[in-house]
Amino acid sequence: MKQLMPFIVIIVFFILIAIFILALYNYMLKKRIIKAGPLDENSVKFLAELNSGNEALKWGLILLCAGIGFIVMQFIPYSAEDSPVPYGVEMIFIAAGFLIYYLLLRRRKD
Length: 110
Prior knowledge:
Elements: H1 5-35, H2 41-50, H3 54-73, H4 85-109
Helix pairs in contact: 3-4
């Protein structure tokens, strides 16, 4: 696991940079749409989708489920050197977070 830490840190660093760039481009796009002039129904819907607020819910659920996965891994006996069990357990919990998010969004739209 110690050999994976530098790799994980680099991935997290690049993900944070990507999130910052996406937020910056979304801001610039909103600004450009508003400066273009009067807004019709399509542009108002598009701006509402950009500001939906579902991103915080999505990442909160995913990080919560990932944290629960890490806690569960502490109680599962496995060989840390050779076993793929930690990766599987963590992926199952992250996938559960995505599924919960999908079901919540689906329920909101109905």
